[in-house]
Amino acid sequence: MTCQLTPIYLCIIIGLVLVKAITIQQTTLCTGPHCEAQAKEYLDHTYEAAASQEYNKVVLADWDYNTDVLNKTAEDNSKKANIALAEFILKEYEDNIKQYDWESFSDSSSVKRQLKFLNGIGTAALKGEDLEKYNNVLADMNKIYATATVCPFDDQTCEDEKRLPLEPDLEHIIATSTNYDELTYIWKGWRESSGKKVRELYSEYVNYGNKAALANGYPNLGQFWIRTYESKTFQDDIEKLWLDVKDLYEELHAYVRFRLIAKFPANVVDGEPIPASVLGNMWAQSWDNIFPDVVPFPDAPIFDVTPALKKRFNQTHEGISQIFEVANEFFVSLGLEDMAMSYGPKAMIIRPEDKEVLCHASAWDFYNGYDYRIKMCTSVNMEDFITVHHELGHIQYFLNYRNLPIACREGANPGFHEAIGDVVALSVATPKHMIKLGYLEGTPPSKESTINYLMKMALDKVQKSPNS
User: Fold this and answer.
1) Where are the alpha helices (H) located in 232-360, listed in sequence order?
2) Which secondary structure element, helix H or strand E, spans residue 363, and what is its range?
3) What does pTM read for this prediction?
4) What is the distance between the alpha carbons of residues 140 and 227, in angstroms, rounded to a whole number?
5) Residue 99: which of 33, 26, 188 has the closest Cα?
6) How many CA atoms does the CB half-sphere of 23 hold within 13 Å?
7) Tens of pLDDT, residues 419-434
8) Is the dihedral of CA 219, 227, 395, 319 positive or negative?
9) What pLDDT sits at residue 441?
10) Nearest to 321 by CA among 343, 338, 342
11) Which helix (H) or strand (E) is 373 found in, with range?
């Protein structure tokens, strides 16, 4: 028996063969030493300059917006710059980057590592309307966070001009108030003004992030983020680290709860979670503001240099600049680079009175090898004194990798940048260093004062463990 193909089946077979041939042609990647040299030429002489220029434009636009969040022109320019960058990244990926079989390149070559990073294009994978909506969501969330305010506890139906911003007013109340009802009111009020309004926007942000992750070959945005840690056992490693400190954390939690029961006997209950509003921080991410309430040895020296700082520095631009000078000198004394440019005229180191800003402390790299800035609504207290050193730690890291290719011009992983800042902060936040600066009396530490110091450090560092 013979089988004869009809013309339509013959067309289908020919079509499938052609599709297969086209697919093979499209998925054939450039490999071998010649392609590696070609990729290096492209990265060094084409991509580097163009990408640096695009990133610089974005950071400039984002800076203008973050330091003036109600400026509609600045907001629009930031959105346009971010969309332009995403389109640039996608175009370079489609036209150049994805053609190389980077995994076959030499392990000793920086080309392989650069292409590995550049093959993860993140939210640049979003196109058209999705990309525009994603940037709108980010801008709207930033604006809500930056402009959220709450009426004072004793004037809960106040006029708009009397409403209190997060920094410094609400943070100061959460850190210092001994009135449980006021703490609860401020804690809830700020979330009503910020988190409640952000909730739906955040869901959109997650949806767009997950969509971008899928386009990058990852099941969700969380997995896309985790890839940057370059560890197949990352989540297991974090779980092990948590288990290593869990017992210490639980003892700290129980001790703090015990001491707070004495302060708020009707509101803090033994064996129950501690109300977040009484932990001295709007997000309960650091408990060191309640140190006076939980200090193990109240009669021994207490490690708090805020009074000394207030005597030496005033809450003016000049006074805050002097704090940055002290911090910068710490780095310079170690043989590291001068960072005076980062808190100079272009920086924002004190909250301006004439515009709304995003106060959250941050360090900025403008991708041109010379422009670095701090954005911070600095107050004269020990917490901000340490934060200044932390942020300058980021600037120092920027300076040390500024000559690397742009694909490698970031932290070794997202946690490493923070680790650099915290190493510096821990080095500074010691009695020995504060005595050297003249902010503490130079008396030899006793067993009791040492335990007080360790408790203060635990309130800031150990308590972060479950969420780190």
Assistant:
1) 234-263, 291-294, 306-312, 317-333
2) strand 362-365
3) 0.85
4) 28
5) 26
6) 6
7) 998 898 888 988 889 9
8) positive
9) 81
10) 343
11) strand 372-375
